[in-house]
Amino acid sequence: MQPTNETVYKYNVQHGMTNTRTWLCSLSPDVNYSAKALKKAIKKVKQRHDTLKKSSKKPKGLLIYNSFLQDVFKYPKPTDPSKPPKSHSSHSKVEFELKRLQQQSTGGNMVETNSKRLETKIDSLTEEMRKKNEYIQTLEEEFRAKNKRIEELEKLNSSQKAKLTLKTSAIKRLRNSDVYQRRKVAKLEGKLGEGKGHQKEEKKEEEASKLKHALKEKEQMRRELVELEHRIIVLEDEQDDNVVECYDEIDRKYTPAFQNCVHKLLNNYVAAIRVVPCIEAVLELAEKKANKLPSRATIDNMNSQRLATQKQLKKK
């Protein structure tokens, strides 16, 4: 286990330079380090620690200081094990050869373990890449399915609009016929009320039967009208799931809520030419569409109305 810069700094403060060098050499007994190089590395850690601690009052300096403390202590370059010690005795030469052979054997074992680690790491990385590719493929399939669903909804929306126009025209015809029947019933009721005494009983019964028949027709048409209005409301609710009503097709003008939204954007210093793109971007974020968006000239008219109302309020 390699020590961190924080561990080396604290050990040096508590035990001194010599004991710190001995402790670092004991952590890696198979590697030879020069005492001078180890001393220089420990001093470098101490100087770096003192410098970074001064700037740790700032957030960025504190981040650098903490990362330095958590970093692994950098050992100096080991001395060349192929060079024998300076002693010329046969005993020291034998010990040196034994150490060198031992290091070679441990180096071979380390190479084998490192190669095994690399193989396991490569296998894990390939498995991770395979899983990521599968996830990307599933995302692409979902994206294609969503695009297909959007196209189907657009086709359904166009067909529902055509049906809605037909239903509205039918409702208008029913309303007109209802008005006509009401007038007719009123005339019949007036005639019956103003009937003279010389009219025969049979004529009265005929007029009464006509009145009852007209009232039945009126009630039946009223029921059909209510049913058609209910169907139109259902169709409008189905359309309103993905379409935001910004323009009122019946009154042929933009809704007050949409005009208020435009006024708020203009009050927040959004340029008139950028109002429509801003609204489109927000609707796209909510996965919705507007039934109709204004032109630049309409935005300018809304802006002039806003300024006029603001002037009137200031005068008051």
Structural account:
This protein is mainly alpha-helical and 316 residues long. Helix content is 76%, strand content 3%. The protein has helices at residues 5-15, 17-27, 35-54, 59-70, 90-193, 201-239, 256-267, 275-285, 296-315, and strands spanning 243-244, 247-248, 253-254, 289-290. A hairpin with a 4-residue loop joins β2 (247-248) and β3 (253-254). The longest helix has 104 residues, at 90-193. Mean pLDDT is 81; it is low at 83-90.
Strand content: under 5%
Overall form? elongated
Instruction: State the helical fraction.
Output: over 70%
Give the helices and strands as they follow along the chain.
HHHHHHEEEHHEH
**How would a textbook summarize the main sheet?**
2 strands, parallel
User: So how many helices?
Assistant: 9
Query: Overall mean pLDDT score?
Result: 81
Strand order of the largest sheet: 1-4
Question: Which structural class is indicated by helix and strand composition?
Answer: mainly alpha
Give the end-to-end Cα distance, rounded to a whole number of Å.
81 Å
Number of strands: 4
- List the uncertain runs: 83-90
- Rg on CA atoms, Å: 46 Å
Which key features would you list for this structure?
mainly alpha; elongated
Brief summary:
The protein has helices at residues 5-15, 17-27, 35-54, 59-70, 90-193, 201-239, 256-267, 275-285, 296-315; strands at 243-244, 247-248, 253-254, 289-290. The protein is mainly alpha-helical and 316 residues long. β2 and β3 form a beta hairpin.
